[in-house]
Amino acid sequence: MRRNLGIKMEAALLEQERSNSLSVEEGMGTCNACKQCAPLGACVVFKGIEGALPMLHGSQGCATYIRRYLISHFREPVDIASSNFSEETTIFGGNRNFNSGINNIISQYHPQVITIASTCLSETIGEDIHRLIFEYKSIHEVNKDLPEMIFASTPSYQGTHYEGFHEAVCAVVKALAKGDKKFGSHINLFSNFISPEDIRHLKEIVSDFSINAMVFPDYSDTLDGVSWRTYQRIPEGGTRVSALKKSALASFSVELGYILNAVCKNGRIKTRSLSQSAGEYLQTKFNVNLCRTGLPVGIRETDKFFQLLSSISDRSIPLKYERQRGRLIDLYIDGHKYVSGKKTIIYGEEDLVVALASFAAEIGIKLLLCATGGESGKLESTLRDVLGDMYSNETIVGQGMTFEQMEGVVTKSGIQPDLMIGNSKGYYIARKLRVPLIRVGFPIHDRIGAAHNKLLAYEGTTLLFEQIVNALLESKQRRSSVGYKYM
Ligand code: SF4
């Protein structure tokens, strides 16, 4: 298999020489993918709903893997129920396990909402989970206190954790939003896969514009809570179900991210309903205005976000943020000599890569490779649009990439980067190349504090810029035979 991968890699690299844009070929083996599984993304969204308990319809191993991944990133307990498929369930169907799983969740957790994601196994055997929910509700209709039950279809072979995340956002809105054509003064802010600290920061920003916003998903407390005296089975916090129901009555939906869950170019995802985002659904079904902008990282993308909030609220940008912007520009001036002309590899979820690339380009860092495990087919065109004349045709854009391929690109090109920006999974490449890794995104398993990573807006960019400059200085000090005390 490895030999085969090597041959395919050669082919991919030849193709790269022609177009500078890489993608995984159909049927190619995958080693160390630059992505996670789709229900994992869905579970993050489910943790952002008040009173919700996630359940996976599939085998126990899927829930265990996802819990392990989320716990070691967020450093919080994460309960995820499972319908525990066995050999028999796999052959004859999982309705009995589904029903007993729901019964156990209701009796032990008393949730407001049970959020259900499918797994590779339940999708492969063709489980009709909408029907299972319908039948369960029909049998138990005498129980008026049944929780809401929401289903997101998330087979991992048709999408990454990023698509699973957006599929879940849309599924929740589709299940709960109700409208009667009287638009309110509130907005929906679909905040994308960001850290709990960034969710808090976004809430602070919209509040400073006096905007009444439903931020979804809001896992800022559920995945980054306080210390408890007694264990809480469902932690406090999350977007309220009542607010989600009113999302159809909002005056605007704001979505952060240009790509979100776009349809895959090569057609692999065409069989799914993944092409629609929550904002697009609300626009089509309830006429809620949709505004989309990128994740606000760097001056240019943050300016766009603040201009949007200013026009929605009809208020000028608060002085507090003008000052933060001014301090960030001053910092750029102070630090430009350390970053200008440096070369980097950026990888992660597509919209995060776009945001980080835009920031890196505006501070003069050259983009050697922009890589993602996603396969929307939109990364390169979005980078060109967002970066404009800062985009370089020399940048290699890799979609559907593995970490092995990323390493292969560096080896083949013979160009040594000065740093890498991405999640912990790329650490071994950074270690081999002896360059600093700036940890952003998901997962961050080899450091603590991932939940507190502030990346967004002027303040988040300030922290990121300082982190990058200091990592480069540290690297230079380590490599120097004499060392520097003053740089
Ligand atoms: S089997 Fe599929 S859903 Fe389960 S952990 Fe693996 S990739 Fe995820």
Automatic annotation (TrEMBL):
SUPFAM superfamilies in alphabetical order: Helical backbone' metal receptor
Residues forming coiled coils: none
GO function terms (MF aspect): nitrogenase activity
Protein name: Nitrogenase molybdenum-iron protein beta subunit 2
InterPro entries associated with the record: ChlB/BchB/BchZ, Nase/OxRdtase_comp1, Nase_comp1_CS
Origin species: Azobacteroides pseudotrichonymphae genomovar. CFP2
Keyword rRNA-binding included in the entry's annotation: no
Pfam families per the UniProt record, alphabetical: Oxidored_nitro
Assigned keywords, A-Z: Nitrogen fixation
PROSITE patterns: NITROGENASE_1_1
Residue span, Nitrogenase/oxidoreductase component domain: 37-472
Protein's UniProt keywords contain Flavoprotein: no
Family per similarity comment: Belongs to the NifD/NifK/NifE/NifN family.
